[in-house]
Write a structure and sequence with these properties.
By secondary structure, this protein is of the alpha+beta class. The protein has helices spanning 8-21, 26-41, 52-62, 90-108, 125-133, 186-195, 216-224, 242-255, 297-312, 328-337, 346-359, and strands at 4-6, 72-76, 80-84, 110-118, 136-142, 163-167, 175-179, 204-206, 228-230, 282-290, 342-344.
Length: 369
């Protein structure tokens, strides 16, 4: 696939300088970079450097995302807050919102922040991990552009809507489950297109109710044109529990809109009635629960560790030598990559060179040159 490993220090400095070059203030650029590269540190390449240019820089250039974030608190109580992000950088909005939720939880036991008018905030697991590192249970979710069909439907009515939870443990990594409520997500289809991999059967449904297979680029185009939609967890219909994924997706849609009077559904498609692009106006929510307000962080971490170890030590299926718990595979990837760098595919290599040349960042030379 033509991947080349780029050292962490090099890619970190470059991405930060590129964000700054596009108008993001330095401290906020560092936050955006940290969230972006956390995806690659965990092996979630669909949401890391792969999305740097098309999801963030291109949207700033198009005028539908503001590089300087106006983080406005609309309403606040001791344990809650409503924030308007004014179409700023989603990573900055997410970081500040979860930090606010954690601070409230440390004082009152629980904290929740609801956000409207935000943009793509990167991997949701970043924010759940922020809470877990502070001894809190962290929960976050976000709505997204409509590309997922409800059970018995074929039209994209809501987003991939991840439900993400982080729980502190006594191990080297915390328990963090970070996944979409659809079988796959737009970012994964975009990634398949880049690496020339076909879409996986049963993950996309056409307007005729039949599964879409084959070329990822063609499938992505159909989704964008409303001719196809992603399928919720459980698959097409109810036989394998598709209604469960649909139900959880709707929970995230509701929590991302009703508390903050935010946009939802088709209003998140990034276009007005004339087809002109506009800000996405996404909604998020962030919840922190401080374990110290119950029986203490130490006990909570120990008990969580005991539980996940009991599961991992249970009987394995024939031919399988390991059972994983959430966050473990990502930790393993980081152990493999921490001393080397991030693997970057050919199409992203070209984008990075284009950005460097556009911004005149001539101090950077990359391994693939």
């Amino acid at each position: 696939m033509g991947k080349v490993v780029c050292p962490w220090a090099l890619i970190t400095n470059f991405v930060t300088d590129a964000f700054i070059g596009y108008g993001v203030p330095e401290e906020e650029a560092k936050i955006c970079t940290d969230v972006l590269l956390e995806s690659d540190r965990r092996g979630i390449e669909s949401h890391g450097c792969n999305r740097f240019k098309p999801i963030y820089l291109d949207r700033i250039k198009a005028g539908i995302q503001n590089p300087v974030t106006n983080f406005e608190i609309i309403k606040e109580t001791p344990a809650t807050a409503v924030v308007d992000g004014h179409d700023g950088m989603g990573q900055v909005i997410g970081f500040k919102s979860m930090k606010m939720a954690i601070d409230k939880a440390k004082q009152y036991g629980l904290g929740m922040v609801a956000v409207r008018n935000s943009c793509h905030y990167g991997i949701a697991g970043y924010y759940a991990t922020m809470a877990a590192k502070e001894g809190c249970i962290g929960i976050t979710g976000t709505n997204a552009r409509p590309s997922v069909a409800p059970t018995f439907g074929v039209e994209g009515m809501f987003g991939t809507n991840p439900l993400t939870i982080g729980i502190p443990t006594d191990e080297e990594f915390d328990f963090v489950i970070d996944c979409a409520t659809s079988i796959t997500q737009n970012g994964k289809i975009e990634y398949y297109e880049r690496i020339k991999e076909d879409v996986h059967p049963g993950t996309i449904i056409g307007r005729d109710g039949q599964p879409i297979e084959g070329d990822a680029g063609a499938a992505l185009k159909k989704i964008r044109q409303g001719e196809a939609a992603l399928v919720t967890l459980g698959g097409i219909g109810e036989a394998l529990g598709g209604y469960k994924g649909y139900g959880y997706a709707m929970v995230i849609e509701l929590l991302s809109a009703i508390l903050q009077d935010g946009s939802y559904g088709k209003d998140l498609d990034g276009k007005d009635e004339n087809g002109t692009i506009r800000p996405y106006g996404l909604g998020h929510f962030f919840i922190a629960i401080d374990t110290g307000h119950f029986l203490g962080e130490e006990l909570a971490r120990k008990k969580a560790g005991e539980i996940i170890r009991s599961v991992r030590n249970s009987q394995k299926a024939p031919g399988c030598d390991r059972i994983y718990t959430a966050g473990e595979k990502e930790w393993d990837v980081w152990q493999q990559r921490k001393d080397s760098g991030v693997p970057i595919n050919e199409s992203v290599q070209k984008e990075i060179i284009e950005i460097r040349d556009e911004l005149g960042l001539t101090q950077y030379t990359f391994p693939w040159e």
